[in-house]
Amino acid sequence: MRISVEQFLEQVAQRGSWMGGGSVAALSAALSAALLEKLVVDPRAVRRLRRMWRECLALINRDATTFARVIQATRTKNRATFRRSLKLAIDVPRRVFEHACTVQMACRAAERAVKPSLHSDLRCARALAHAASESARALIETNLRWLGDPAYAARIRRQLTAARHADAR
């Protein structure tokens, strides 16, 4: 489903809408990857960034859909269904987090190759990627606490740490 930016913002602002923080984080990651795409010259990097922003666009709706299922599962009082749906909902911001960390790393790698006159766009791409990763991480932590599964939480936190450390290299 394609909607305008204005329609997206209307959905985010609407009370009761499933478009929320996860969808906004996914859009931020998509924007950062798209902005960086226009700054880099390496064709492989361009293709990778394009794949990333397209996946993040798909994650916008997926986040809303999966979280709606979590809420439906809470209403049925079926703990197994709730746990399955919440794990699927956690996977969306986890993927956003990973993409955002990758964009941050790519921004740092591009600093020398990007013309100084375009460094403001580069800083903007990096800031958007940072906002996306921090937003996604906050959503993940909230949902992990709600899930109440320490072993699963530890595994997800290890994945986040690995993605962040890959970003730091």
What features would you highlight for this structure?
mainly alpha, Four Helix Bundle (Hemerythrin (Met), subunit A), 6 helices, 169 residues
Structure description:
- The structure is a single chain.
- This protein is mainly α and 169 residues long.
- It has one domain (5-168): Up-down Bundle (Four Helix Bundle (Hemerythrin (Met), subunit A)), CATH 1.20.120.
- It is built from six helices and no strands.
- It has helices spanning 5-13, 21-37, 43-76, 79-110, 119-147, 150-168.
- The longest helix is centred in the middle third of the chain and has 34 residues, at 43-76.
- The protein is globular and about 55 Å long.
- The mean pLDDT is 93.
